[in-house]
Amino acid sequence: CMHPVLRHGDRVKCERRPVYFPGDILTYTKDNGCLVTHRFLGYAWHDGEWKMITKADDARIIDNPVAIARVLGRAIQVSGRSLTIDSRARVNAIIQFVKAVFRAIRR
Question: Which pTM does this prediction carry?
Answer without folding.
Answer: 0.92
